[in-house]
């Protein structure tokens, strides 16, 4: 099976990758670009391939790293994604998590830098969070190996499970996604992803869809209606909605404690 490591730059992907693959590594380049491609075999089970994907902040196509990562997940379909999160920058890292959850791949959230979180007295209410996020979640330290074996056990156990998405937009945008999905001839669980990409005016997605210029005109008409109603650009509507949800989520579940007592279990 294939497990892909996905996360923001400097969230600890390569540290984790090195720790779980040891010397069983292959380094190359992604086709057509000079971005490094790293894969390897899990030390404890050689039938598990690990892919260290380029670090990214979002799945919007601003860089070749972002395009490589999203194309890999959508087209190569790893069995499981480990989303590595820098626990000391939790809120910022969750933006990518929100986007990743649209890709239809089972996912576990590895909240890394647990050692640094303890030092900084940052506590995350996992129970509250996992109710809303509906993903398994585990605090790890890629640097000192804490909970790495448990993380890999969880990841392996997720193969073949249903992926749940995190985010629900307001009714107008959900209806828009639904309407645009009807134009998209892709497997059911990816229609939503492509539909959101079209709403974001992500042109890099166009070659992957078989849409006529008439389709595009109809889609654009649907998008314009919502843009007029909210007097905002459609990509901004999508991004703002994600940021707002994450802000609410973090408000109720992230605790910065400086009273000298750690609240970790
Ligand atoms: P990547 O960009 O996601 O591949 O991140 P790296 O694995 O290169 O890690 C970035 C930096 O964070 C390096 O200096 C690592 O040593 C450090 N790092 C990674 N994981 C941890 C951790 O769990 N705790 C601490 N304290 N540092 C870490
Ligand atoms: K790095
Ligand atoms: Mg790296």
From TrEMBL:
<feature type="domain" description="FeoB-type G">
    <location>
        <begin position="1"/>
        <end position="161"/>
    </location>
</feature>
<protein>
    <recommendedName>
        <fullName>Fe(2+) transporter FeoB</fullName>
    </recommendedName>
</protein>
């Amino acid at each position: 099976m294939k497990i892909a490591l996905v996360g923001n730059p400097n969230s600890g992907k390569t540290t984790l990758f090195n720790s779980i693959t040891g010397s069983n590594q292959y380094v190359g380049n992604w086709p057509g670009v000079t971005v490094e491609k790293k894969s390897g075999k899990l030390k404890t089970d050689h039938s598990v391939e690990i892919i260290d994907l380029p670090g990214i902040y979002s799945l919007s196509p601003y860089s070749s790293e972002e395009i490589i990562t999203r194309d890999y997940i959508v087209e190569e379909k790893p069995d499981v994604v480990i989303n590595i999160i820098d626990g000391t920058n939790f809120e910022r890292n969750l933006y990518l998590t929100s986007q990743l959850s649209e890709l239809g791949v089972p996912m576990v959230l590895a909240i890394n830098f647990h050692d640094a979180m303890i030092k900084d007295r940052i506590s995350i209410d996992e129970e509250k969070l996992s109710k809303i996020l509906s993903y398994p979640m585990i605090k790890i330290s890629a640097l000192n190996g804490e909970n790495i074996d448990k993380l890999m056990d969880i990841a392996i156990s997720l193969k073949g499970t249903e992926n749940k998405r995190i985010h629900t937009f307001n009714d107008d945008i959900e209806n828009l996604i639904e309407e645009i999905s009807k134009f998209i001839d892709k497997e059911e669980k990816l229609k939503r992803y492509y539909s959101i990409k079209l709403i974001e005016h992500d042109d890099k997605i166009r070659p992957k869809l078989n849409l006529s210029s008439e389709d595009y005109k109809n889609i654009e008409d649907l998008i314009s209606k919502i843009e007029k109603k909210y007097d905002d650009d459609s990509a901004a509507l999508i991004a703002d909605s994600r940021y707002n949800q994450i802000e609410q989520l973090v408000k109720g579940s992230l605790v910065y404690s400086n009273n000298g007592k750690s609240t970790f279990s």
